[in-house]
Write a structure and sequence with these properties.
Radius of gyration: 25 Å
Distance between the termini: 89 Å
Order of helices and strands: HEEHEEEEEEHEH
Number of helices: 4
Shape: globular
CATH topology of the largest domain: Jelly Rolls
CATH superfamily of the largest domain: Protein of unknown function DUF192
Strand content: 25-35%
Structural class: alpha+beta
Number of strands: 9
Length: 183
């Protein structure tokens, strides 16, 4: 004698049981990710992932650029470190309370960058290419109030030269006016 079993129809009990199993699996996966540090591709825990700041418009020479602003000591220290890429047409503007010789390096920076040192008036006084993860210092020859980092080679690709002027967009001007800069 053969007993044929009919499949049970998908009722509420079966569906809620599956939802419960999925919920438990999701919670376990999230807990395991947290217990393992939730490391990212760059080896840094998620809690230390690079912060993304608001972007502001500026023009350098005739080229438009969207930049994040690093104005606090911590923002300037972190800069673009830990990022796998910086898209073309974007960068970071480092803002300092005064003009002085500035030194930048790439110790924890994973992507190749170019740097431009800008004076108080926003004129480009010097540009250099920097190598990822390098501790080689890049120091401005002249005092700089601003430093602009972009993807390596971007200045050359778009024809930016020493002496070109940087013009901040209205929102960036407002943001800079609100800053209480530390040294």
């Amino acid at each position: 004698m053969r007993v044929l079993m009919r499949p049970r129809p998908m009722g509420r009990e079966t569906t809620s049981g599956r939802v419960c199993i999925l919920a438990v699996a999701l919670v376990g996966w999230l807990a395991l990710g947290g217990a393992c540090g939730g490391d990212r591709r760059d080896g840094r825990p998620r809690s230390e992932a690079p912060a993304r700041l608001a972007r502001y418009a500026l023009t350098i020479g005739d080229m438009a650029l969207q930049v994040e602003v690093a104005a606090t000591r911590e923002e300037r220290r972190r800069g673009l470190s830990g990022r796998w890429e910086v898209p073309s047409g974007t960068g970071m503007l480092f803002v300092f309370p005064d003009e002085a010789r500035r030194t930048f390096w790439m110790k924890d920076t994973l992507t190749a960058l170019s740097v431009a040192f800008l004076d108080e008036e926003g004129l480009v006084t010097q540009m250099e290419d920097m190598t990822p993860l390098s501790e080689t210092p890049h120091t401005s020859r002249e005092p700089a109030r601003y430093v602009l980092e972009v993807p390596r080679g971007w200045f050359q690709e778009v024809g930016i030269e020493v002496g070109d002027r940087t013009v901040f967009g209205d929102a960036l001007e407002r943001r800079l006016g609100e800053l209480d800069l530390d040294d």
